[in-house]
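Most newcomers find our protein records easier to grasp once they have seen one. Nothing more is needed to start thinking about how sequence determines fold. Here is such a record, shown just as it appears in the course material:
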Amino acid sequence: MSTATRYRWITRRKDILGGQPIIRGTRLPVRAIIACYKQGMEADEILESYPIPPAALHEAFAYYYDHQEEIEELLRPIDPEELAKELGMRLTPEGFFVKDDNLVGK
């Protein structure tokens, strides 16, 4: 039996980062905190970088462990070719996205 966990410091708003989980009262996504940690930053260093209460930092870690698959997907690097296809565009050899009339609507 599982119970829903409520988070005091974590929220989602459709108008901020497309509804990604963020620290309440900021635009700081949980994924940014987790990315810093995965890059080797200590909790104190993260708190020096972002003006959030320590409780918010710890709750971001709790949220990550409760929703690991979701946050890992948000941390996944974006493949430019895949993104171009999703947008109905193509990627030039120079790395620019250009409209591709052959892909629009597919």
In short: Residues 78 and 101 are 23 Å apart (CA to CA). The chain has two domains: 1-75, 78-106. Strands lie at 10-11, 22-23, 89-91, 97-99.
